[in-house]
Amino acid sequence: MIPNYLVDIELDKLPVIEKDVIVIGAGIAGLFTAIHASKEHAVLLITKKSLLDSNTRYAQGGIAAVTSTDDSPQFHMQDTLNAGAGLCSTEAVSVLVHEGPAGVERLMELGTKFDEEDGKLALTKEGAHSQRRILHANGDATGYEIVRALSEQASANSNIEIWDNHFVIDLIVERGECYGVLVQLPDGQRLIVRGKATILCTGGAGQLYRYTTNPEVATSDGIAMAYRAGAAIQDAEFIQFHPTALCYPGAPRFLISEAVRGEGAVLRNIRGERFMHKYHELEELAPRDIVARAIVSEIDQTKSTFVYIDITHESPEKIKHRFPTIYEYCLKYGLDLTTDWIPVAPAMHYMMGGVKTDLHGETNINRLFACGEVSSTGVHGANRLASNSLSEAIVFGNRIIAKVAQLEPLPAMPEISTRTDRKQVMIQPVVEKRLKLQKLMLRYVGLVRHEPGLRQARLELERQLPTFDMCLEDYEQFEFANLLTCALIITEAALWRQESRGAHYREDYPQLNDEKWKKHSLQQREYGMIKERQEYV
């Protein structure tokens, strides 16, 4: 069984630091929430790398919010519900679409500069959106611009203390109450940080898969530590694979934004034939899961390893202006977006499920909150609508701090000792174990799944359980333990859901089955897969 702590600790022998609010992670969720909390609280922002290392930085397409008179919250809500394949919380989606525009205004107040045309915000359209409502910055560098602005604000804020290169190993939880976190410093020392509220903003689990658009830091740390602490993990089986990641020898799986298709790009197989009309009436702008599986189908039929994305019919000036980051990146590998068809294939992109929260970001553990990709608010359902993730982070970050303001002072911390005298050390290099795990997840728990493969994945993952009996000492070992934890959670949920819905596709159960499966998976460490749930539907 996965233990509740990764390392042996005796709280009375560790230094203790007091803070009002502890924020773990430095993407849009962490930065925005920390800045908002700093108005009334002393905030500690902890990141295992630096302020510029997060998934947000790599977000190209933009942020979805209703800012045009041609659009409405009702349109945005319906698009989100349609993409979510029956598992969205209508209440959570309503919160998102109605409070998102104010969140965008707040981002601009904090220094984010979105692109404009003729004095108005420039808007684009992405897959499964019925209206042009995607705000973007510097063409296709929206995430970087948001992180730039928020990082500058956080760094200059005297109420925010920032710890770079610090690793949060575990949450300190006793009897359903979170008292703070166990942190390892860059020099290997450990200490306890106590806080009235602890907010997980740690991002997703992209590094679970061999091919991903996520950075190296996306190792499911928040989901894993929350699970160990007793938090409920919801809908972990829904893993979104972005349809169009660069697939070229020697190049990382760099994201080719959905906005490229939103601006008119088409998909072609290696024979040069367009094919999306065979799979969905919206063709290239169909929901991501449909486009990704269509690409895999064409790859299989043509015995290739990629398809092409083609926007060469647009003017070079427009392409360079609208997609400068993608254009420059492709040029590094001898590919010209203005004249060449760009080879692409699906890659792991986003985890819809995560730590289950209410509409104020609070988990089933008192004083523990989750925001951003690490959370499962009910907004995304079985398949996230493009560009809703950045909106979700600011809307629910705002709501979390409203709830934190109502919390009573933190009581005295109980005596906690987790000594198990772990002595065995990890012998096999972590890089080898991590690569093996990534290949396993890609093969058996990827875009297309079936029971024999999922059972094989679970068997091989369980062979790694002795990892938790070892004496783990450095960041890479902690990350592997977190990846293993999350891999087991995802695999168990994928085995449990015997249907195909949204981003979860089972070859052996290819149909959607509302009568039996219009419900959520829910897992807790002590109980495994919890009773069937019908909330949100």
From TrEMBL:
The FAD-dependent oxidoreductase 2 FAD-binding domain covers which part of the protein?
20-390
Q: Which cofactor does it need?
A: FAD
Protein location = Cytoplasm
Its chief place of residence is: cytoplasm
Q: Could you tell me which Pfam families the record lists for this protein?
A: FAD_binding_2, Succ_DH_flav_C
Which reaction equations make up its catalytic activity? L-aspartate + O2 = iminosuccinate + H2O2
GO molecular function ontology, one term from the record: L-aspartate oxidase activity
Q: Which residues form the Fumarate reductase/succinate dehydrogenase flavoprotein-like C-terminal domain?
A: 434-524
- List the pathway annotation: Cofactor biosynthesis; NAD(+) biosynthesis; iminoaspartate from L-aspartate (oxidase route): step 1/1
* InterPro entries per the UniProt record, alphabetical: FAD-dep_OxRdtase_2_FAD-bd (IPR003953), FAD/NAD-bd_sf (IPR036188), Fum_R/Succ_DH_flav-like_C_sf (IPR037099), Fum_Rdtase/Succ_DH_flav-like_C (IPR015939), NadB (IPR005288), Succ_DH/fumarate_Rdtase_cat_sf (IPR027477)
Which keywords, in A-to-Z order, does the entry hold? Answer: FAD, Flavoprotein, Oxidoreductase, Pyridine nucleotide biosynthesis
- Enzyme Commission number(s): 1.4.3.16
Function noted in UniProt = Catalyzes the oxidation of L-aspartate to iminoaspartate.
Which family is it part of?
Belongs to the FAD-dependent oxidoreductase 2 family. NadB subfamily.
Q: What is this protein called?
A: L-aspartate oxidase
